[in-house]
Amino acid sequence: MAFIIRILEKNGLLLFFLLLQIIAVVLIFTRNSMQRSWLAAQTAAINSFVSGYIDEGASYLQLKQENEKLVAQNKALMEALYGKEFSQKATLIHKKDTLDGTQTYSMIDGDIVFNSINRKDNYFTINRGKIHGVMPKMGVIAPQGIAGIVINTTDEYALVQSVLSVNKMRINAALKNAGYFGTLTWKGDNARIMHLADVPKYVPIAVGDTVITDGKSAIFPKGVMIGRVAGYEVDTKTGYWDISVELSEKMGNIRKVYVVRNLKKEKIQKIQDTLKATIKRENDE
């Protein structure tokens, strides 16, 4: 108490002056309409400023939840776009053919936890593994195009061979407009460019043509975006087109991927194994 009394004794005049100033300001803003309007405007501006930051904070807190919703939506869209197999039923020749859509592919979403693009053969790791249904030889798609093929898995993680691999990556690809297909490979010199070979030179090509997966393997569905033609010339060694394809997906910037699960892979593999057995039997004879 004595301490407070000493402070009042030393600073009494200053405190009394500040009290008078506060009373004067209050009287000015309560008795004059112009000052009241100015004060109301300033108060509204401060409230808007604070409310904006509060709204941004709330939006940030909801960002993870919204991202999960978008991932689920993308997964559903991919399954709807690529997951259907359309085949013609065997019918009598005088009857009209009918189309029956059946689910062939499902998608497993995942995040990349490690990635490389500057090696001769590149890899990335995703946070999905055996317990999530991921197995070797499954294709991996990014939001803008193909990304790679699973080569190994643990319970919770998978190692993926990137499309940017010189020695270990061959992808069946097709020119969307022309309909011709070939083999897509990477030459190791540019992380944005792959090369499509085995397309006959009489096939018409234009810069900007779309290149997609052709669906002639059990790894990728038909029609998945790969990129666009960036240039082309005749390969003097083969006589076929050497087509430069600019990837639609920036491999050094991907975060989210979808693993493609072929629901009919075992049935396809079973019939392919019969061919291997036939060849082996013919060689033995």
Description:
The chain has four helices and 14 strands. It is α+β, with helices and mostly antiparallel strands and 285 residues long. The chain has a domain at 105-264: Beta Barrel (Thrombin, subunit H), CATH 2.40.10.340. It has a six-stranded antiparallel barrel. Strands 8-9-10-13-12-11 form a six-stranded antiparallel barrel. The protein has a two-stranded antiparallel ribbon with strand order 1-2. Strand 3 and strand 4 form a beta hairpin. Helix 1 crosses helix 2 (33-61). It starts with a helix and ends with a helix.
Primary descriptors:
Thrombin, subunit H, 285 residues, six-stranded antiparallel beta barrel, alpha+beta, elongated, 35% helix
Total count of helical runs of at least 4 residues: 4
Q: What best-fitting shape do the alpha-carbon axes yield?
A: elongated
In the CATH hierarchy, what is the class of the domain at 105-264?
A: Mainly Beta
Query: What is the rounded distance between the termini?
Result: 114 Å
Largest sheet: 6 strands, antiparallel, barrel
* β-strand amount: 25-35%
Query: Which regions have little confidence, pLDDT < 50, spanning 5+ residues?
Result: 85-101
**CATH topology-level fold name of the domain at 105-264:** Thrombin, subunit H
Instruction: Describe the strand arrangement of the main beta sheet, using strand numbers.
Output: 3-4-7-6-5-14
Radius of gyration: 33 Å
Q: Please tally the β strands and state the result.
A: 14
- The average pLDDT score comes to 77
Element-level helix/strand string: HHHEEEEEEEEEEEEEEH
